[in-house]
Amino acid sequence: MRDTAPHAAGCVIFRTTPDGVRVLVIFDQYGQWTFPKGHLEAGETSAVAAVREVFEETGIHGELGALVQTIFYDVVKKGRMLPKQVDFFVMHTSQTTVTLQASEGINDYRWVDAPTAMELLSYDQMKAVLTAALAATA
Which residues contact 82 (CB under 8 A, 6 or more apart)? Predict the structure, then answer.
């Protein structure tokens, strides 16, 4: 059986509050602040996977917006280094309740303003994704 390069999708989730726009960041199984994302299932588009993964990881429903950035990084799968692709979309929600997927090691979240999100995000590529998402919603 041939291994294929992993493909995932996720969202930068925005919520408008009386105090301004907030961004959802989650604390992942690797101990890093990031955005919800996950692997595409067979036959899924990136957009469908992004909506499904956001709901599975956070319990959030929202309005899916534009694809804002695709990132690539290497992962080890079955002992082989493979390039992983992750497509990120914008999502807008009015939902305030977050239900974290503890089984995936996601154990914390924060609704924060964009500058705070930029400080919290652990991965440089996620900071670039947030910059692209902010530009797309401006």
Answer: 3, 5, 6, 74, 75, 76
Which stretches within the chain are classed as H helix? Answer: 46-58, 114-120, 124-137
* Cα dihedral: 32, 37, 38, 42 (round 10): -170
Would residue 1 count as lying in a domain?
Answer: no
**Is residue 126 a contact partner of residue 36, using CB atoms and an 8 Å limit?**
no
pTM recorded for the entire structure: 0.92
* pLDDT tens digit sequence for 75-120: 887 888 888 999 999 999 999 999 998 888 899 999 999 999 999 9
Specify the number of domains making up the chain.
Answer: 1
41 in any annotated domain: yes
Q: Which residues pair with 10 in a beta bridge?
A: 37, 88
